[in-house]
Amino acid sequence: MVEPAKEPLRVALLGSGVVGSSVARLLVESADDLAARVGRPLEIAGIGVRRERSRADVPVDPALFTTDAMELVTRPGIDLVVEVIGGIEPARSLILAAIKNGASVVTANKALLAEDGATLYAAAEEAGVDLYYEAAVAGAIPILRPLRESLVGDRVQRVLGIVNGTTNFILSRMTESGAGFAEALDEATALGYAEADPTADVEGFDAAAKAAILASLAFHTRVPLDAVHREGITEVTAADVASARAMGRVVKLLAIAELVDGGVSVRVHPAMIPATHPLAGVGDAFNAVFVQAEAAGELMFYGRGAGGDPTASAVLGDLVAAARNRAGESSGPGESTYASLPVRPMGDTVTRYHVSLDVDDRPGVLAAVAQSFAGHGVSIQTVRQEGHADDAVLVLVTHTAPDAALAATVEELRALEIVRDVSSVMRVEGG
Amino acid sequence: MVEPAKEPLRVALLGSGVVGSSVARLLVESADDLAARVGRPLEIAGIGVRRERSRADVPVDPALFTTDAMELVTRPGIDLVVEVIGGIEPARSLILAAIKNGASVVTANKALLAEDGATLYAAAEEAGVDLYYEAAVAGAIPILRPLRESLVGDRVQRVLGIVNGTTNFILSRMTESGAGFAEALDEATALGYAEADPTADVEGFDAAAKAAILASLAFHTRVPLDAVHREGITEVTAADVASARAMGRVVKLLAIAELVDGGVSVRVHPAMIPATHPLAGVGDAFNAVFVQAEAAGELMFYGRGAGGDPTASAVLGDLVAAARNRAGESSGPGESTYASLPVRPMGDTVTRYHVSLDVDDRPGVLAAVAQSFAGHGVSIQTVRQEGHADDAVLVLVTHTAPDAALAATVEELRALEIVRDVSSVMRVEGG
Prior knowledge:
Shape of chain A: elongated
Number of strands of chain A: 17
Helix content of chain A: 25-40%
Largest sheet of chain A: 11 strands, mixed
Oligomer: homodimer
Function (chains A, B): Catalyzes the conversion of L-aspartate-beta-semialdehyde (L-Asa) to L-homoserine (L-Hse), the third step in the biosynthesis of threonine and methionine from aspartate.
Cofactor (chains A, B): a metal cation
Pathway (chains A, B): Amino-acid biosynthesis; L-threonine biosynthesis; L-threonine from L-aspartate: step 3/5; Amino-acid biosynthesis; L-methionine biosynthesis via de novo pathway; L-homoserine from L-aspartate: step 3/3
GO molecular function, one term (chains A, B): homoserine dehydrogenase activity
Largest interface: A-B, 60 and 60 residues
């Protein structure tokens, strides 16, 4: 065990919401284990909160709470700062001040990292401190450290992630019960899986920030948040889910980062994946990240993507790593962007498509539809006719084609007299 | 990009079999990427082989091959040594000599680590160098670094691993086709999934070494290899697999490490797990490790557990990490055994059991059987009668009970006149 004489490392904690409370509680409850693992005790120097209060569920001296977070992070002798406030400001200013004060920083702030990670990294590099953020993507699942360190000798080709629990819960419910989006969202809200304003989740903003972070680490390049193509799940219908099932597929909201022809494609959108794909079985609010690498082949990382304790697990892992480095007067790997790859426009992205059309059921319809695909260079892999008589539905799955070619095809199909409606267009991923 | 003027780090590679060849090839093919990621180029200083030869599939200068591995690892200026020979000797002597010579070591040698990891760790600690071995467990899957670093702020409660591809392939075939063990082993051999002498795999020796390593890292304690309870899959019958299926379960060979009442239980044995468990879908020769931790909850890591390239991916990840440390004049976390937990005897291990009995079909049979369980304090959760008339089969699943109590129950059942045969006894894990 650690001798009590060892000088503690001083930790400033910013935020005492769900995650902050878990972090504080675990720091207290696991103090002996953490001290043994770091080689020095971790001591909470203060907890920055928005309003003065004493939290009964956080077992610390109430005197540790302060509303002056800037004073806390700039105090002399602060070794480590944990930021779990979220949002761009004041989080960014606090982190930059902490780094300038010589502290290593652990954050769960995906929005800030996706928006302005380069500034934070540059500051950390200059100060010779660590900037860790495992909790920012997929909660408790160790995925950023494996990408940054375990797979660093390999060449990652593709990352497919289910990185938003709210949308995965909604799509899982739609798959299990046949419910529509609105009904499944109501259920998610009632069970606490969706926030009162679910926009960030259901429109894919949350997943897009995570996609940018995953792509940057996987491909050693910077991916600006606004270069991430983003579509949410609000347009996914019960009919899409049923049509997927009929083809042996399930609908998931995927964060995708791919290396293609010397560039990266980074996007978030609903997609149909084979029911046999390892990601297909990831239900409820769970997260998973599927990685294909040149030498490793297929890997998957699965677990809880949100919640106080799971997120705190990731924060504390980073905290111990940063504390070990501090105790050993070293620092972990910094930003790696040497590859400087271009981000490919969405129109150039090549994937497969599932297209459902309501059509007149008369001779020549398939020929006209097929002609439209062929005219844009999109070749068809399978066609299925569902329904009958007046009410025919054509379901087509294409071979790989550029997104722009498919978009042009769909526009032309909508204008065809024999096509009553293009009822569903969804990308097909995962083989 | 890295400036060419930077001094290379010199790598000695021991072994040029399947894994060694992949490592050498990737070191050459990915040289620019690796140099950028490390900050300095990695240069192959020599390749230790058993017999002089030039390998056409390893694209290096033939002059690099040497049969004097000891001379290679003790050369001045060797920074990093990769050991992929396997076995206890000469691997141990070579690694210890390399460490004494000041090199960091990356190894895939599970047998040596399980047998004598403490000696290697102590030497690395004394010399201030790294000892990394991600490739020793579950091939390409990043699991040791996540346990050592990502989950280091959490408290791991249980690890369940499918860590042997040969046995998983055999059990998957038995599940899919209804084949018996011998038939499935023949198929595995024909397809190259089983070695000519499959003992190390099918008797669980390989998995036991991995279980010892996983348990040591998960619980910060030393687990001697001979403290790992080990049972292989040679006794698993088609009837066991069918009986599991009838109960909604599948049979897997599991490496299990659990924290129980301040001690650890470490064991390898076939077990029935629910068909809905994340490990149940891990088919063919894939590996997966399921981890339960106090804060993180349930996690799973999935991928390829063997093969040249997947193993080389893990080796190169470690090599880059060790090289970064060397370039930065630091070292990663060493052995952590502060918890010093006792290993619990198998008889004290508490789990659930699936027991199939061929019995006389006459009144009083169930009462007699139930009495036998009750007499040893083993309570029954479910009973199912299969078959009929003269040929009745009772399938019982118990609540959790100590292994010793179950063994005593089974011994007594075998002696009962009404019990013709105890046809299957298998542990039930994973909920």
